[in-house]
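Run folding on both entries below.
>entry_1
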Amino acid sequence: MGRVLSGYGCRAPYTRHMGFPADQFTPRGDPARSWRRKRLRLSLFSLLVLGGLLLLACGGGEVAPGAVHVSEVDNDIGPVTVDFIDRALERAEDNEAVLWILELDTPGGQLSATDDITQRIIEARVPVVVFVSPAGARAASAGTFITMSGHVAVMAPSTQIGAATPIAGGGDDIEGSLGQKITNDAVADIQGIARLRQRNADWAEDAVRNAVSVTAEEAVELNVVDFIARDLRELLALLDGREVVLAGFVNDEAAGPTTVLHTAGAEVVRSDMNLFENILDVIADPNIAFFLVSLGGLALLIELFSPGLVGPGVVGVIMLVFGFFALDVLDTNVAGIVLLVLAFILFATEIFVSGFGVFGIAGIVSLILGGLLLISDSPDGGGEVSIWVLVIVASVIIAVLGSLWVVMIRDRKRARDLPTRTARMIGRTGVVLGAIDPEGTVQVASEMWSARSTGGPIAEGVEIRVTGMEGFCMIVAPVSAEAGEGLPGAPASDQALLDAPPIAELPSD
């Protein structure tokens, strides 16, 4: 990880990295360098293939009208769930589906996401059935709002619904006036939904204020849901011939025409989360998003410090792309993102300008503050970046930056000492790594150098001695005449002639 010094005085296309073993540096035209270029092309091709697969996974083909569309949500309710439900419901509407069934199993989620989902279901152009399933599932907290918003609400045996009291993103109670405001708003919301679907508004209020929860059987008795079904097949059988009012009810009177459901023999079409939505659902977490953005930026710094490695750059770009995708769906604070960007600008300044640690310390402070401010502090913000994640990421960055700084200082010192070092190379012996004809590469003192022979070709593996320097290019000759004899037509070097025994004098006439 140092600066690349071109071989002045030689036409051979070789370079030398200061301070690295010779076997890591090879000619520009050799197979290793060619492999690095192939690796770069392969990485770019992999990114294109990944993007293509994600695009294909995001698409949904058209189906014949009259089908039953079924989707599943079995995790926390968040922004990704909102986008998925909107996409699945829109697909059902565009394909003139008989109805759309949402199989629900959730412990809760964000209030803002819940409001978006219930509003989308209420405005749906096809009947919506919310089915709390399979057995053992629950529609807790946000799931209560979603279940009661469906035109038909159904639960499987051994399921539960309720416990809809709003809490903060970290799981704590919301105290004071803010807590009262949020609770009263949630009560008004769920009561309006219950009356629109002619369900028990009093129980809905109790579920929000007192966090009550009931089983499937109790929910049917209390008019919280419509009926119980063991599985999807039984659900479709019980729905056949049922009448629903798409517009809902106002003052216990239908606000629009009724629609009769015909589900017997209807085609069932699954519309579940695609690959991209599943990935985004996993990474749409403050801690994961901060981790991806921070370490992705660090990988790019490593690539900038040592261009040509390819790996850190590709990995860094991928991590940053997914990290910013995750931040896009979270309730982020612009100030937090600006501080993160500023942190990496300061890190780069510390590496390349050498601010004696001032820029690095400022970058760490900016990184920690950015992590703390990254997610909005609203009760619905979806949590915050853990202090332990901040400590771990900051420690990793300090360690990496420290290593880069040490390498850079070492390389600068070696660059200053380079003229003296090249002069000391004269007279040393080494070995030919790439055949010299008349130019090639040699290894001398565990380093790889560009080399040129003034005498003639020298085969790979022959021991040589440095007889001179032209810039960063070595002038070499075989160590002994025996080494030169192995090369047809290769003359003995000057050193070999000096080492040869004296020629006997011929007798005079």
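>entry_2
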Amino acid sequence: MLQKWNCNVNRVIFFCYFYNNSSWIYKNCLSTFLKYGPENCRTFFTTPDFIVYLRKSRYLQQPDNQYQQLFEAHNACVIVPTYNNAGTLHQVMSDVLHYTGRVIVVNDGSSDDTQRILAKFPNLSVINFPKNEGKGMAIRAGFELAVKMGYDYAITIDSDGQHFASDLPSFLEKLASEKSAIIIGARNLHQENMPGKNTFANKFSNFWFFVDTGIQAPDTQSGYRLYPLHLMKGMHFYGRKYEFEVEVLVRCAWKGIGIKWIPINVYYPPPEQRVSHFRPGPDFSRISVLNTILFLVAVLYIKPRDFIIHISKFKNVKDLLRRHLYNKEESNRKKAASIGFGVFMGIVPIWGFQMAVALALAAAFRLNKALTIIASNISIPPMIPLIIFLSFLLGRFWVGSNAVYMMFSRHITMEAWKLNIEQYIYGSMTLAVIAGLTAYLITYFTLESVGHVKRKMGETGK
């Protein structure tokens, strides 16, 4: 029996040692056998939990040449931001170092055994913050060091043990065909032990990312990403904590950097074993404020800028109209609605913001943005006096006995000014509705008539 026991002990320890190259695992396997005996341990060592445990416990400090060459070929590195994850950091570093020695670790002011654990890996590039600054600051510091070291790409991976380093080669494979894009590791949000709040937060983030950029992404909160550092040079970011991962995606998309994704594996431990530094109140508030700011920037600057770039590709307005007004892929109702809505937005009293708001709402309502913007230019300087006059005229019907005529006097009182403003706002809204509906009807029936004539001519030709 003793001989059989020794044989089993040696066999399993031999397997664990060469699979993990870890004296720590060696000692644990030995102690488990001595404590429970070979028969009881047979069940333990074949459980799924132990297999996952082995996969996440590699301690190979010499990277595999095949993977190391891939990192060198793409001039890429791995950045690991960490804060008080001593329970998983050892395993994460061992796993990552199996694939590459190009690793930067940012210790974000940890107060546990993080520094002692990192000291076991002498080949790491380590940044130590004296106090906790936030995940955003940690990643930004990692970016800065990676650029100084001459890297073109960086893959960020969390240190809480949720990500598998075995997915690193998948990022590099995707990079071979997507050299100008951020590549996101998209998680399966419906797997076992996935926190419900994570699913909601991700859907919330995905929605605002789509609103800000027009890009539909499956997972905008995953921290497992590949960044094209050489395309991000000169960009200054403001996010210090978790909101940074939203900011960097949106602003890079605005810059023209692609957003791609690959499926990844993810491990969520049971709730009692889970460690999270996300603070639902403060961190969600910071993300919400950032989303509001990004939305305003998108509406007031980014979308008008992109549209101007788009229309500048046409030689003149005539070409633009021919391309969009006679586009057979869109119905006459949609084209007429786009023009009618543009006329409406060109008259409503939000001077200075008419074009930006018109473009944003046209995108939201899925109208033809080009036709909407062209029609909103009804308020060009020659038309402004007529629009103001008609607005005051129509406004008289709303203010009743308080109606006033337009007064151009140096001695105008504040009360008279208030009455003029009220009458103008009511009148301009009325004029906007009337003019918008009129433009819709004229455009629709004109397009229908032109289409009918063309069909008749086509039948006659046959």
